[in-house]
Design brief:
By secondary structure, the chain is an alpha+beta fold. Helices cover about 30% and strands about 25% of the residues. It has helices at about 15-25, 65-70, 85-95, 105-110, 115-120, 135-145, 175-180, 240-250, 290, 295-305, 330-340, 375-385; strands spanning about 5-10, 30-35, 55-60, 75-80, 100, 130-135, 150-155, 165-170, 185-190, 195-205, 210, 215-220, 225-230, 260-265, 270-280, 320-325, 345-350, 360-370. It binds adenosine-5'-triphosphate (ATP) and magnesium ion (2 copies).
Length: about 400
């Protein structure tokens, strides 16, 4: 293919699907993450005899020395998680020829959700009101006074799966909220009474062109993505295109190539707010592997390697993705859903090869494709019924 070697910071499920996609194009990848058998490392055998120096690296994507070690053996660096050491990436950018996509500056901006919001506001993107707050009761009370209750308090950094969020329903709980968020730097967002959460995956080329995937509906449970449906169904014929335009404009304003996941809220009056942007392939784009002409993973690789982008169009009338979230330390609950999926037409099972199952951990997903929404619903039902806690 391009002959370039791609280094991936992070070896979780997104890196695994990126690596699997790379293998179809003979693109070599090396992965940096802790452990010899991180999910992404399991799908690529290294070192190869043709590149004896190339190997996966056992270490943290927050460790500057390990990032430099990875950079020394690859041509392009990319991320499957935004919580990486950006100082090290900047040093690689200054001192080597290695390209980094998206740019370290973009990753740094997105790492801090408050700065990300300020940036989006400055670019004229629709976002709900937000305020900086200090980690003390007076400041939180003042924010509640200005933005109302409930108030969404968020940690500025290191957030994922809602773990940096606290919904403040009464000001008396301000200290409890600060404690729950671990005394980290905070900001507050006005509560958004959304009717739906939606998302658009956008691919950005190195020279700033953007193309988007169809708008999807995302359904969250306990702050974690539970289900994704595509295409988005709505009585408003303009909604999907409006969401795509908003997402494309936001991503065009960022720097560097790759796929970006734009999470948005739909309000009852039809308006759309951006919630946040992920600088990488995204959970709400898993469905593109089976349901689109080119997956988000392949288009991520194509964009960072300056190859022609593939079509983002849906190739099936209706699709859904069900996340397989750990219910306990046992995989048995997940295995029961997988057992059903194996009998359902149009179901593709993806298990991530994680060493341990934990409550709330993403262990796999199932993508369903169908010739109609009605058929999709019929195919989804037995899977939902097999989930732990289902009342059948
Ligand atoms: P992710 O795993 O997507 O990175 P995260 O930890 O960064 O998650 P957010 O995306 O900020 O968290 O929020 C998680 C969920 O909380 C959202 O998907 C949405 O359901 C809800 N939420 C976030 N912000 C607000 C808000 N201002 N008003 C109402 N609900 C919100
Ligand atoms: Mg997030
Ligand atoms: Mg989110």
């Amino acid at each position: 293919m391009s002959g370039k070697i791609v280094g991936i910071l992070g070896g979780g499920q997104l890196g695994r699907m990126l690596a699997a996609s790379a293998s179809l194009l003979n693109i070599k990848v090396a992965v940096l993450d802790v452990g010899e058998s991180a999910p992404a490392k399991q799908v690529v055998a290294l070192p190869s005899s043709s590149d004896p120096k190339l190997s996966h690296i056992d270490g943290s994507f927050k460790d500057p020395a390990k990032i430099k070690e990875l950079a020394a053996t690859v041509d392009v660096l990319t991320v499957e998680i935004e919580h990486v050491d950006v100082d090290a990436l900047e040093e690689v950018q200054r001192s080597t020829q290695v390209e980094i996509h998206p740019s370290p500056g973009t990753v740094r901006l997105i790492q801090d959700k408050y700065r990300q919001k300020e940036f989006l506001k400055g670019k004229g993107c629709p976002i709900s009101e937000f305020l900086r707050v200090d980690s003390n009761v007076e400041s939180v009370k003042e924010a509640a006074g200005r933005l109302g209750l409930p108030l969404m308090l968020k940690s500025r950094t290191m957030a994922y799966d809602g773990r940096g969020n606290y919904v403040l329903k009464e000001v008396e709980k301000a200290q409890e909220a600060i404690d729950a968020l671990g005394n980290r730097e905070l900001y507050a967002e006005k509560w958004v009474p959304f009717v739906k959460e939606i998302a658009v995956m956008v691919v950005r080329t190195r020279d700033g062109n953007v193309v988007s995937y169809p708008t999807v509906e995302t359904v969250h449970k306990d702050n974690i993505c539970h289900l994704v449906f595509a295409p988005l169904r709505s009585p408003d014929p303009s909604l999907s295109e409006r969401a795509r335009t908003i997402a494309e404009q936001a991503v065009a304003a960022l720097d560097g190539a790759g796929v970006f996941g734009v999470e948005m809220f739909l309000i009852e009056d039809g308006s759309i707010y951006i919630n946040e942007i992920a600088p990488r392939p995204h959970n709400s784009g898993h469905y593109t592997i089976e349901a689109c002409e080119t997956s988000q993973y392949e288009n991520h690789l194509r964009s960072i390697l300056s190859l022609p982008l593939g079509s983002t169009a849906l190739k099936v009338p209706s699709t859904a993705m069900l996340n397989l979230i750990g219910a306990s330390s046992s995989m048995s609950e997940i295995q029961s859903v997988v057992d059903v999926a194996l009998t359902v037409p149009g179901a593709s099972t993806h298990l991530y090869g994680k060493s341990e199952c934990r409550k709330g951990r993403k262990m796999g997903h199932i993508t369903l494709v169908a010739p109609s929404d009605a058929e999709l619903g019929a195919r989804l039902r037995p899977l939902l019924q097999a989930l732990p806690g289902s009342t059948k």
